[in-house]
Amino acid sequence: MADVVLQTHLSDVGEPKRGKVRDVYDLGEELLIVATDRISAFDVVLPTAIPDKGKVLTQISLFWFQQMAGVVENHVVEADASKYPEPLKKYQDVLEGRSMIVRKASVYPVECVVRGYVSGSAWSEYRKSGSICGIKLPEGLVESAKLDVPIFTPTTKAEEGHDLAITIEEMQEIVGPELTQELSTLTVNIYRKAAESAEKRGIIIADTKFEFGRYNGKTILIDECLTPDSSRFWSIKGYRPGQGQDSYDKQIVRDYLNTLDWDKTYPGPELPPEIIEKARARYVEILEIITGKGLK
Questions:
Q1: Global pTM?
Q2: 2 pLDDT exceeds 80?
């Protein structure tokens, strides 16, 4: 499993494009996306991986892609590694559960963020200006407060470093008014359906982000979908407005790193075994809650 932990080596498939977490192989007409066990914090990929993290991200994404089939088409062609074409079949043991073959879409150059609660950077911005991405909000909101209606708060799509928040008007300048309206509507509709589904399982989806692209003249959902790396999941039982919430994500890792004398630049520090195990357990837990199934 060493190849999967930090990067994949499919020697006769070509060199992948490596992201913070995913390795993407060009198969010609399609792409192979492999979710590794790499973990990033403060925009730095750490030297220590979280076992099975890539499987969790892939399996949660596949669950939500299926759930959203009636709302928007997605890029998934095949996720059963036993059905992959040659020469991928020889790597079935490595690829199973953490990969998918997807359509090649023309990726829109924006991240589509939707917020149902005031948290994270949105809370910081609200405290300063009373608004989020140019959207004026009611006075007197507290941290983690639920919004009356979800709001669409797009960002730039950065290859490296932080995505930058932009206003609807700025997004219109990038992709045009019609596509802005389409993506805004899709993003909120997906969020509403997912939030309703998650609440039945005792989970709040505070916010999340999506990526979209164009394929055969249609907008489709790509990349990942409603995972712990792209969303804030909170327990309904533990939800307390007026404070930060305990999230089902890599917050355990961030909290540990904040105790260290580290300047948040590359290379990051190694993670101790107890932090690795706690983080892995957290990822697996949210997979089981959301999908009702264990790790494959």
A1: 0.93
A2: no
